[in-house]
Structure prediction request, 357 residues.
Amino acid sequence: MNPGTSRLRLTVGAGAAALLAGLALQAPAEAATRVGSPALVFATFNVCKTDCAAPAPSWDIRRDRVARTIIESSVDVVGLQEATHWPTSTAKTQFLDIQNLTAPHGFVAPTYTADSDECRWTAANPRPCTHTTGLLFKSSTVQQISTPNGTPSAGTVPMSRIAAGLTADAAPRKMVWAYLKGLNGAGPFLALSVHVSTFKDPANEASRIAFGAGLDGWVQALNDAHGMSGVPVVLMADLNSYRKRQPQGVQTTLTNAGWADAANAPVKRNVEYSTINYNPLLLAEQGFPKKPYTFTTSKRRPVLDATRIDYILTKGTGVVATDYEVVIRLNPDGTFIPEYQGSDHQMVRATIEIPAG
Prediction:
């Protein structure tokens, strides 16, 4: 048994009422941190849009599963991808639906101003961005800060603000940013959530790499403009790029520029599982298999190389990831516990130490 893999089946109701009535929360194993170092737990989670492809259950079924995974995973900050602006049967947008389900457990979204929310949806400007990302944090452990010069401390921008020459798919994709700090003394820090293009053609691959190449300059300019120069950064992202398929992809662009990959933390959990449930050997069960594909090592392949397109990356002096986990809940026979199978992705979770500013 893997230490971070849940083997306990929970009997829970499918509806939001059961979720909000107070389920017995089942958190993953506590991550290791060094004594006296302030740390927070970050997660990135592609929740699969409202029209998630078959054999995915409908969003009306998956919504409770997504919320349950967030609530029970002991996270302080979570970056969401494919949390769309599309309406659901219970909320104005998919992102608001997730926010409403997690709010009774203390999760809140950053507060924007009209100017800082460049991707805002208005009648005059109804869709300036592709709304596929969101950010939530737990108000009992994290707070949004005020900047030294009184500028907005959170906002949204299209990826076209990060790099020029992006494709029509990449340019309007929304990135969320927020200056936060831990109530335990961690930070302040800049939190980012982004979902880059899913297309695999050369032009969109170049756009992914251009985004990675432009991110440092954009972050520095943002920090300088808000009186937050030198503040560390935590990026929560679906980069649609992984080592085997794209060895020189955006993830390599970022790590070559000094971003640290939380997957290199000294404590790792469930890394034999991919962060996304697509594999040729899953046959017709792509996205929502009954059982995840398990990657193994051999003499020919001594390095465990599970498919990974979801990342938590950090940059900043003294910022250290101590624990990394692919969050996956399985029965004793290795099949998924359906009550937690809300997406075709697994949540990725990392404990990160951030020095007090």
